[in-house]
Specification:
With about 180 residues, the protein is mainly α. The protein has one domain. The protein has 5 helices and no strands. Helix 1 runs antiparallel to helix 5 (about 115-175) and helix 3 packs antiparallel against helix 5. It starts with a helix and ends in a 9-residue tail after the last helix.
């Protein structure tokens, strides 16, 4: 095989990889933007606020160290959603259920259908568990967004590197003697 033919093939492979990497970077950019803006928009629509600084809601030692940095802020990001779900709602759910989960309380309520207080606890646990799950889903999407961001950066860097290598390969292709053989 002639060296020039090998250079030509490798240059085209490099060009295709460049296009693929830059295209993937563009799609990852869109994914990051979509996930981030959707989480922000959906959280803003709920108008959830962290308890104000110094409020009695922050007195609980299981809550205070986690929520104090966000005191008084509106919940708008995935990270905030995780903190609110795991260190505010989860603590209150544990208090309401006496350490039992929604499914455990629900089973008790089914066994005691006339217990109105237990039925009210089950309803509160269901609502709290659903809100917590929704917030943790928003957190998960924000993590996907961060993964997309770092992947986008890697794709763009590798795409630019491949572009440089492709241009160098094209330059080498033009300079090589057409009669030089490789692997002959």
């Amino acid at each position: 095989m002639r060296r020039r033919t090998l250079d030509y093939l490798l240059t085209w492979v490099g060009a295709l990889l460049t296009v693929a990497l830059l295209g993937a970077g563009g799609l990852l950019s869109w994914g990051y933007s979509f996930a981030t803006s959707t989480v922000h928009t959906q959280m803003a629509a709920q108008k959830i606020y962290f308890p104000a600084k110094g409020s009695s809601e922050l007195a609980n030692p299981l809550i205070k160290p986690f929520l104090t940095p966000y005191a008084g802020q509106e919940l708008l990001t995935g990270q905030q959603a995780e903190v609110y779900a795991d260190h505010f709602i989860a603590v209150h759910l544990s208090e309401i259920g006496g350490g039992l989960t929604y499914s455990e309380l629900s089973a008790k309520a089914i066994a005691s259908p006339n217990d109105k207080a237990l039925a009210a606890k089950v309803q509160s646990m269901f609502q709290g568990t659903m809100l917590r799950s929704t917030l943790l889903t928003a957190y998960a999407f924000s993590v996907f967004a961060i993964i997309a961001l770092w992947s986008m950066i890697a794709c763009f860097i590798l795409g630019l590197l491949m572009l440089l290598l492709t241009l160098l390969g094209l330059r080498h292709y033009r300079r090589v003697d057409p009669h030089v053989e490789v692997l002959s």
